[in-house]
Design a protein that fits this description.
The complex is a heterodimer.
Chain A lengths: L12 E6 L7 H14 L4 E5 L7 H5 L9 H5 L5 H4 L1 E2 L6 E4 L12 H12 L4 E5 L6 H8 L3 E6 L3 H14 L4 H4 L7 E9 L1 H5 L6 H8 L3 E6 L2 H9 L10 H13 L16 H5 L5
Parallel strand pairs in A: 1-5, 1-6, 2-4, 2-5, 6-7, 7-8
Antiparallel strand pairs in A: 3-4
Chain B lengths: L12 H18 L9 H13 L9 E6 L6 E6 L9
The chains are: A alpha/beta, B alpha+beta.
The complex binds adenosine-5'-triphosphate and magnesium ion (MG).
Magnesium ion (MG) binds next to helix 1 of chain A.
């Protein structure tokens, strides 16, 4: 058991990764953002709020090491420290897995608050991977957030759901209810952006999406084969081989922590013969 | 496959995915061999009880780590206690 030698107070910022619509890239984003923050030296924990559908552990590659989970901690069956899984690649990174066998009712507001308060004392960033939907599970994940990453695909139902989620962030969260508190700072992360389909007019442009949602843009993550590969391997995409998606997540994290980084639209290299030959250079 | 032919050969990631899933699901389905996650809180309480018969330790003194494997899984149990008590 190592003693914490850092004397500085941790930042203790809670960031929810949410979307409304399912399958848009929340878990991929939670893992990538968490890993990138940790790689930059910030103490970071990623929490799986998707009770009953545990997946973050697979994406982070720690599924064989889960002993206790978030629900065990809430119900007093384990201490937080016993449930946290320390990443083997990055010393600043930890995962708090969720239960595979329970349901979302096992999460209580008071229980979630207690765990988050304890995590705020140890970590700079607490990334909450929300379940899909806008009901109880998703509301628990966003309730105590200071900031939100609203993951959106350039597609009508995803944008519509993001709008509803933005509404909830402004109405039901702890910050929304406290007089004098700043509202939750929400930013949109456009994922699975397919440049060729946008260029051909099949897919909405970034500008289209932003015009509808009217919140700041955190980044644009391209549709990328690297994401499937990383999930197969259980490695957050930013820790795998360089890719367009990894670079886009790195930029997004830079912006998240306040760096000025120009927005760019990346894409996987097209598979022409020349590109195949010079693939590594791209 | 052809697209990757110029890179040094790496095992296809899909194989890794399949292996990881097989190991995980085998454990989740069988729930046997004492590696069932649900039994761990109880195991922890019982270990604490036994230790407490011999020395004073707090609830946080126990740390259980697990690594599920293909053939073999391991459970690592660490117990911290005040140095001055000593052990037999
Ligand atoms: N940028 C991307 N490029 C290609 N595939 C992606 C990208 N982002 C996510 N995916 C794929 O989309 C699928 C859903 O991703 P993910 O699990 O991260 O979404 P989610 O929002 O967490 O889903 P759920 O709502 O079920 O929790 C996965 O198969 C993932 O590999
Ligand atoms: Mg998910």
């Amino acid at each position: 058991m190592s003693k914490d030698l850092t004397l500085e107070e941790p930042l203790g910022k809670v960031i929810v990764v949410t979307s409304g619509k399912g399958g848009v890239g929340k878990t991929t984003t939670s893992a990538a953002v968490g890993a990138e923050l940790a790689r930059r030296g910030h103490k970071t924990v990623v929490i799986d709020f998707d009770v009953g559908l545990r997946n973050l552990d697979m994406i982070m590659g720690c599924e064989r090491r889960v002993v206790f989970d978030f629900i065990n901690v809430i119900q007093g069956d384990a201490k937080l420290k016993q449930a946290l899984i320390r990443d083997r690649r990055l010393e600043n990174l930890a995962v708090l897995p969720t239960s595979q066998t329970r349901d979302k009712d096992a999460l209580t507001k008071a229980g979630v608050e207690k765990v988050l308060d304890e995590l705020r004392k140890e970590f700079d960033y607490i990334i909450c991977d929300s379940p899909a939907g806008i009901e109880r599970g998703a509301q628990m994940a966003m309730h105590f957030a200071d900031e939100a990453i609203v993951v959106t695909n350039p597609e009508v139902s995803s944008v519509r759901d993001s709008d509803r989620v933005l509404g909830l962030l402004n109405s039901i969260t702890d910050r929304a209810g406290k007089t004098g508190a700043e509202p939750v700072k929400a930013q949109v992360l456009i994922t699975r952006h397919d440049k060729s389909r946008v260029d051909s007019g099949e897919m909405m442009t970034v500008e289209d999406v932003l015009e509808v949602l009217a919140v700041p843009l955190l980044g644009i993550i391209p549709e990328s084969k690297a994401v499937l590969r990383a999930s197969n391997l259980g490695v957050p995409v930013v820790l795998d081989d360089p890719s367009a998606a990894a670079a886009a997540y790195e930029d997004a994290v830079g912006r998240l922590i306040g760096e000025q980084i120009e927005m760019r639209i990346a894409a996987d290299p097209r598979r022409g013969l020349l590109q195949r030959l010079f693939r590594r250079a791209v | 496959m052809f697209g990757f032919s110029l890179r040094p050969r790496k095992a296809a990631s899909a194989n890794t995915a399949k292996e990881r899933l097989q190991i995980l699901l085998a454990h989740e389905r069988s729930g046997s061999g004492g590696a069932r996650p649900d039994c761990l809180p109880q195991l922890q309480r019982e270990i604490l009880d036994v230790i407490r018969r011999h020395m004073q330790i707090g609830d946080e003194a126990i740390d259980i780590r697990m690594e599920r494997g293909d053939e073999l899984s391991s459970l690592e149990i660490n117990i911290e206690f005040p140095g001055k008590l000593g052990v037999n």
